[in-house]
Design brief:
Rossmann fold; about 35% helix; eight-stranded mixed β-sheet; single chain; alpha/beta
């Protein structure tokens, strides 16, 4: 598993968007028992914190200790440093989740582990969100930045996000899921912070010793008056473990 976010874990915790309640409600509607959940690639524990409101115990793992140091604390969340695999009793987990991270996993190892620790009726849910949308004018500027300015700095795994995870093999009894979206009223400073969490931006800075986001923000200033509604498309793969 690649670790591309440890060096800016505090920014990740501060500027990454929060997943909508509708997503969790849809997932929970398919869960049979609410004993134990495992949130793999938990990052700063955003999803784990939501799971903790519903489950007795939440196992939250991530390869990055720096990310876990930023994680939201809750009495029933057990954080630990781990990659795609956990050492846990067989057939003991009711729900396995991966939020915006499965494209970094060794998915063969992970899915094998899911089948071992998941109960016979367990649910696995993996989701991600794509490129933000605002309005046609701003979108064209951001698209140029995304594809042309920093496009060559994205890791190959980013293509799975662009493909909405449809190209990822999913060896479970898949449940049809709707498309979701979630929106926020953002000042330009929030967009600036969010874009600086992109792994491609960090790579660009390492090579060129200048931040391309600063130039982009200057381009957007005349189009961004006060707060602007920012919408993210959100996609979900969900299935039952047998």
């Amino acid at each position: 598993m690649k670790d591309l976010f440890s060096q800016h874990a505090s920014q990740y915790a501060q500027f990454r968007p929060v997943y909508p309640k509708e997503l969790y409600d849809f997932i929970y509607a398919h869960v049979t028992h609410f004993g134990c959940a495992w949130d793999a690639g938990t990052g700063n524990g955003q999803a784990a914190n939501e799971l903790a409101k519903k489950f007795i115990t939440v196992l939250a793992t991530d390869i990055s200790s720096a990310q876990l140091n930023q994680a939201i604390r809750h009495h029933n969340i057990q954080y630990s440093v781990a990659d795609e695999v956990i050492n846990h009793p067989l057939k003991s987990v009711d729900l396995i989740t991966v939020a915006q991270a499965i494209h970094w996993f060794d998915r063969t190892r992970f899915f094998e582990c899911v089948k071992k620790v998941g109960k016979p009726d367990a649910i696995i849910a993996v989701w991600g969100y794509g490129l933000l949308r605002i309005n046609p004018t701003v979108d064209s500027i951001i698209d140029n930045f995304y594809y042309n300015v920093i496009g060559s700095f994205w890791d190959p795994e980013r293509k799975m996000i662009d493909d909405h995870y449809r190209t990822i093999p999913f060896p479970f009894s898949e449940i049809e899921a709707p498309l979701f979206s979630f929106s926020f009223q953002w000042p330009l400073e929030q967009l600036h912070g969010y874009l600086n969490t992109w792994s491609a931006v960090r790579k660009y800075i390492q090579l060129h010793h200048t931040n391309p986001v600063d130039r982009l923000i200057k381009q957007l200033q005349t189009h961004w008056l006060n707060n602007v509604e920012v919408t993210f498309p959100l996609f979900l793969r969900i299935g039952r473990v047998h």
